[in-house]
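Posting this for the archive.
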Amino acid sequence: MSDHDLIDFVLPVIPQSLSSNRLPSLKQLLPSYDEAILQNLDKIPDSADGHISNLFSTQIKSKAYKPLPAIQPKVNSKGSNSARVKPTGNSKSAKNSPNRKCKIITILIILISIILIAVIATVIGVVVSENNKSSNISSSLLNNCPYGYQGSKCDECGVRYNSNKIIGGSESQSNSWPSIVFIVFKFNFLFYKDGAIKSGFNISLCAGTLINRNTVLTAANCYPKTIIHSEAGVVSVQINSFHLTIGSMFTVYLGTNDMTGATQLLNPSTGIKIGVNSFTIHPEYNASSNLNDIGIIKLEKEVDLTNSIQISCLPMSEKYPTRVDIDAWIAGWGVTSYLSSTLPVKLREANIKIHESSMCNTASSRNWDSQICAGKYDGSVDTCQGDSGGPLVIKDFVNGKEKFILIGLASNGDGCGRTGKPGVYTRVGYFLNWISKF
């Protein structure tokens, strides 16, 4: 009886679930057998190393059992012999053979072992899959580029050409924040009042971060669904004769710290102005609670990366960073005092701290898996109106280089710059899977 013969004998009792190609074949797991052993076990010498005598040495040496019945070869349709185990003679005697029972028990033990191995392998696979979840997300998000490189061209992220490094804070130097963008929303509309058709418009300002050559991350609240006009009252933001697309309501400025003339949609003195193809907000964004306050802008074309325009590095995992009480940085063009209506034209930056979530618990409707508490606890430094969507970054090493990692987006807070009330930021890592869809 050959190896193949024993396999043919055993396979009918293998559960169908074990036929998966993830498991080794039974032939690979069972030892090699010698035909002579199966035909006459009591004639096998103790030296038959590597054969079935090793498994049943006790039965062989005792010579208390009868040899197995002869094996009848079966001729297939092509005339070749394909031996299968087929008892002959007294079937009742063969059935009661202790040697045969021992073989069956041994085979069952082997099969049970295979099942246990498969179960253990499955459990280990699930654990490994969970541990690598964030890596798989990042791989999809980064277009299969290695971490530290993003976009269709696998551009290196976090490149800066000025190493110097908002209520409080100071003006930033040129090229110190090459991935930050300035977003202008200008909505024109017609309304009817006092028997006449009039025109109106609304302007709001935000910031964002370039994460590849044509994609900007920002806050969902930068895309208003309604605006309030002094004469028209509450106006719904929608496509009209002035705006054939939602994207046409937005303009993005890149590569410049000076936003002089941006509210008039003038070309900047440095950097570039570019149109928007689409603005998608998170489907679960709640304007009342500010949960899931994140949006993605797709630019109308890819931009060239220069000394003043670069892409930001994204976090590698959903919960990044896991540490608190660490330094972080913010930047933006928002007002420099609460309730002020004056916006600075120069980009400002500030150093703050990442806090325990409990230090922001006075704010309502919080989910600290998807949000970050950050700021100066004494209220001296904070983001405010006009800073929404702007970056919250920390320093970390990427491929041996120290870089700024985008961990949050300016979202909301209990006022601006108030003692004991740090700001609340959208946690970018939590939304990596959603971001990867774009």
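Residues 135-435 form a domain with the Thrombin, subunit H fold (CATH 2.40.10.10). Confidence is low (pLDDT under 50) at residues 1-95, 126-140.
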